[in-house]
């Protein structure tokens, strides 16, 4: 598996193959939204947002998990 700055893989019940992929460019990002039902309505349960920024000559990678209210509930920051 070729790992780009960010890469996601999802195993979904009923699908014959995983959903997977990541941004093409070194500085690319991704935004994944997970929805679920709430008493018949559809809500955003979580968003997983991955983005990069330069700090001098270092590319900093950040992935955040946001709850339904947009609050960051988990974060991972690494150097590329």
Give a quick set of tags describing it.
80 residues, 6 strands, 60% strand
Count the DSSP helices: 0
The oligomerization state is single chain
Beta strand %: over 45%
Helix content: under 10%
Q: What characterizes the major β-sheet?
A: 4 strands, antiparallel
Structural class: mainly beta
Can you give me a brief rundown of this structure?
The protein is built from no helices and 6 strands.
Task: Please tell me about this protein's structure.
With 80 residues, this protein is mostly beta strands. The chain has a domain at 28-79. It contains no helices and 6 strands. It has strands spanning 8-10, 19-21, 30-38, 41-55, 58-67, 72-79. The strands form 2 sheets. The protein has a 4-stranded antiparallel sheet, with no helix packed on it. Strands 1-2 form a two-stranded antiparallel ribbon. A hairpin with a 2-residue loop joins strand 3 and strand 4 (41-55). The protein is flat, with a radius of gyration of 15 Å.
Describe the SSE topology.
Layout: E1 8-10, E2 19-21, E3 30-38, E4 41-55, E5 58-67, E6 72-79
Antiparallel strand pairs: 1-2, 3-4, 4-5, 5-6
């Amino acid at each position: 598996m070729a790992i780009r700055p960010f890469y996601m893989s999802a195993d979904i019940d009923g699908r014959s193959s995983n959903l997977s992929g990541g941004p093409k460019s070194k500085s690319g990002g991704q935004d994944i939204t997970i929805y679920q039902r709430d008493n018949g309505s559809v809500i955003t349960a979580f968003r997983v947002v991955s983005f990069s920024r330069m700090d001098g000559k270092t590319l900093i990678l950040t992935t955040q998990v946001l709850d339904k209210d947009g609050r960051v509930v988990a974060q991972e920051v690494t150097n590329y």
